[in-house]
């Protein structure tokens, strides 16, 4: 056979095999309908734009699995012959006219289907493909869930959707970097399957161009990774980290450094986080420009660096005047996520907001108070100022506002001094007006919060203790049963022990309370050892561990101590005194730091009501903190002064006399 005949035969065979393979690859793939699927929304991460600052993209739609091809066969020869004009090349007048016409009509499209109809009328260029995907996502992101579901269904069924994605796939190699990463982001948002060929093509090209991406493109790509499956994103994430690590020495501004830090994510290696920390510490002179953003950046990457946080908090404290609300809230939320506390900064923020109370809305004040409560910090100045504002006009509080105020003030146990009673009375009166429209759980929480504050409103309690209301707690799932029982038991103890003045006696029926007693955790060994060392062989003192009172309050240790004067008096008169009269019961309670307001020794609400009730029951509550157990010598002196105060006082006076002589 002649050589030319052999070559022609081979070309024909290769073309036939290639077409057969593509035909098999592009067979229609059965995809699950999204008609009855719930399209949940997820928050996109912040994306840095070098021209517009920080851009927050809206919520996304989690898609059903879909392959872009629906059986349409494209000619590979046409793909190979398709030409792409250089970025700076001039277009003919007719092409420019079509481009402007396309862009103008694109802005008038209201749905993804409108955009797809436009692509049928005018073939989009390489740069316009990204604009189409952008406009398709922008047109549905603000729709309701039902409307978005319908529009996505129409989009997936539109015959031009596959053609647009095919155009995107063949144009990806020639796209500008920003168009490339944004197109990938919009495809994820629109629900293009991550197993599809177009998706893999974009991922591969992004990997090839990683070294050419600027900070903005890397940031957009990092946002894509947040919504990609692990098997799709691992290699790309590793590549981004290598690029960031390589560019670290060349970073000159804090803003660029923060962008790189946000790209790392919480699962970045600790060695890389330490390198970023050292780089940030070398640029501390620039922190005054945007310290709150550095704190939120550290929260985003889940990295606690006390030196960096101390510098940021110091800058914020020095420049509080004029900081907008959103930044202050971001700072406090970042502190919560990082478990960071700075007493000076917290007090400064509290004083600043209290002194400028009139410029803040009620919603803003409640948000700040709520975050402070989660930080276990009592902003005394702010809480006092807000209480006075509520007293002057309590009727402006909505039910949601009231629940928030009750939770914050009862949890932090703030002492409002002469405003305390008036403030609690105002809250109680406002609560009475909402009782008819409150659910059972709202009533329970409100009654619980007011009981912690020492207030017992009759109307909410009477409605709460109705059998129809109590039955609702038994019908709830086991997930909330323990929480409901804890609140009900506290309300029951307050009604029985505090003896409130009510129109009629109210108690929680025993049938509404769970029978099981709380589990008894082990006593702190250092606490027990210190008590045993001090007591020694004292016959008049008795030590009990893990004492449960009222089937609810757990006491770590109870020391029963005979009172010497009463013992002597009883032996002379021959009368026998009751144990409560002849002895003193000291309830030793180990309290972790979270039971106190940060930076103070003031117990929070649940611990405060426990102390109040133990005093009513005849105990002398004594709180022992972690600091008092750190040193063996200090804890011995502490317990000796606790159990034998007169003996400890005489020993201390003797030491002072020796020092004086």
From TrEMBL:
Keyword annotations for this protein? Answer: Mitochondrion
**Location within or outside the cell:** Mitochondrion
Residue ranges annotated for the RAP domain, each copy included: 588-642
What's a BP term from Gene Ontology annotated to this protein? mitochondrial RNA processing
Instruction: Give Gene Ontology CC terms.
Output: mitochondrial matrix; ribonucleoprotein granule
Q: Name one GO molecular function term.
A: RNA binding
| A Pfam match | FAST_1
InterPro entries, per the entry: FAST_kinase (IPR050870), FAST_Leu-rich (IPR010622), RAP (IPR013584)
Predominant subcellular localization, coarse grouping:
mitochondrion
Its recorded name reads RAP domain-containing protein
Q: Which organism is it from?
A: Anabas testudineus
Q: What is the lineage of its organism?
A: Eukaryota, Metazoa, Chordata, Craniata, Vertebrata
